[in-house]
Specification:
By secondary structure, this protein is α/β, with parallel strands linked by helices. It has 16 helices and eleven strands.
């Protein structure tokens, strides 16, 4: 989390420093309208910069993953930049429109302006001729962007509608990029600010075209076929096995992938619930009925159906050198731990029955119960050499740090891996931090929320 917070604040800070380097206040503004022109430029740069980064992150690029801690963290950053673009865009719009309203209401008096000198540069002359058009289309693009970002933030809206409308933002960004190119102070294009803005706009525009063509991460997509389906009614979970004959590079336990079973719905992210075995070339997903799409899967998916799998993504891969690990899976958050247990079983078989040295306690807390699913979980935990603690909310109460520390006396030597409800994870992290666990290095949490 700390790195995505740093990345989020670093971008507006950098743009602010570069903007200040253009010396906007080299001469004190003669009146309010000169100050307003300066603020319109500043807020516009921040807004389009944040939206450009949203477009870049929408491509699901691999290069930021190691630094940011996985695609789940990148999507959280994508969301933050979207909110920042909305806020700075509203401020930009208010600076642009507010003084005009004030003049119309008689609150301000517009200063008298003389004729503007004709620039020598032909490109600047061209920009002057389309300035009014750029202002008009930029205003309507802002209204569209504000509406679409608001729709994206409302989780009550169905994923199908979100998927269809969110892609329109790519077209809106192209309009806003044109608006920015024309209206940025022409002299600033030769400055470091102009260079960085041009890079953001160019990269963002390219990303927008990729999104509109529905080619995001196309080179990481492979075809697969559903070979098994099993439904656990007690926990409303669908287990789906997919055979990927070629192209899949393999994955680490704890990673996730995007699966497309219906092109009209688009790709949905699911944590992979199986270890990779190159001889079998099979990926298993355990899907909880949480929304309109996942509730329909049980009726729509069938053996032999062709699907597309994209990935793998994520850095929730259990990689550390701690002698002990504590795993906490809340509800469907048990999925990455199932994959890791299967990986340990494969390691045990390859080592002639000898288990890996790392000692692990797995806590699975759940409000719903399916005895066949729990029996399978117990069997895999035993085969993987893992101490399993199952807590059913109605019977055992809620899981807290005190109970974990009581059952794992060596917790100070352990790393803690959490997957489950975000509020539960935040409370657990704070609890262990209060007790002295170095959570920045040893508390790992997957932020599995793509909206």
């Amino acid at each position: 989390m700390q790195r995505i917070v740093i990345s989020f604040w670093l971008v507006p800070a950098l743009l602010t420093v570069l903007w200040l380097a253009t010396a906007p206040f080299a001469a004190p503004p003669a009146n309010f309208f000169q100050f307003r022109a300066i603020m319109v430029q500043y807020t516009g740069i921040l807004a389009v910069g944040c939206m450009g980064l949203c477009m870049i992150l929408a491509l699901r690029p691999r290069w930021p993953e190691p630094w940011l801690g996985g695609l789940d963290k990148m999507y959280r950053l994508h969301k933050w930049f979207g909110i920042a673009a909305l806020v700075t865009g509203v401020v930009h719009w208010l600076w642009a429109k507010g003084p005009k309203w004030a003049v119309g209401w008689g609150w301000l008096e517009r200063p008298v302006r003389g004729p503007k000198p004709v620039p020598d540069n032909l490109i600047e002359q061209l920009f002057r001729t389309v300035r009014g058009f750029a202002e008009d289309v930029g205003e309507w693009a802002f209204y569209a962007a504000a509406l679409l970002i608001a729709v994206a933030l409302l989780t009550r809206i169905s994923y199908r509608l979100f998927f269809k409308t969110h892609r329109i933002l790519a077209a809106v960004f192209l309009v806003l990029a044109f608006h920015s190119v024309v209206l940025l102070n022409f002299r600033d294009w030769a400055s470091p600010l102009g260079l960085v803005t041009a890079l953001l706009l160019a990269y963002g525009a390219w990303a927008a075209v990729v999104v509109l063509r529905r080619r995001v991460a196309a080179h990481r997509q492979v075809g697969g076929e559903i070979v098994s389906i099993h439904y656990y009614p007690g926990v409303r979970v669908l287990e789906t096995g997919i055979h990927v004959p070629e192209g899949w590079p393999g994955h680490k336990s704890g990673q996730f992938a995007f699966v497309t079973s219906d092109p009209s719905e688009g790709a949905h992210p699911y944590t992979i619930a199986s270890a990779w075995n190159d001889a079998e070339r099979r990926i298993t997903f355990v899907i909880k009925e949480l929304g309109d799409h996942t509730r329909r899967l049980r009726d729509r998916l069938q053996a032999g159906q062709k699907v597309t799998v994209e990935g793998p993504y994520g850095c929730f891969t259990f990689d550390d050198d701690c002698p002990r690990q504590i795993w906490v899976g809340g509800g469907i958050g048990i999925t990455p731990f199932i994959a890791r247990m299967q990986h340990r079983i494969l390691q045990r078989e390859a080592a002639g029955g000898q288990l890996p040295k790392q000692s692990i306690d797995l806590f699975h807390t759940t409000a719903e119960v399916d005895e066949s699913a729990l029996a399978r979980l117990r069997a895999e935990a035993e085969a993987a050499g893992i101490r399993l603690h199952i807590l059913i909310d109605s019977r055992d109460g809620h899981l807290g740090g005190d109970r974990i520390r009581a059952l794992v006396p060596e917790w100070r030597e352990a790393s803690l891996w959490f997957c489950g409800p975000a509020g539960f994870g935040a409370a657990l992290r704070h609890d262990f931090e209060t007790e002295g666990l170095p959570v920045k290095r040893r508390f790992h949490q997957e932020l599995f929320a793509m909206r």
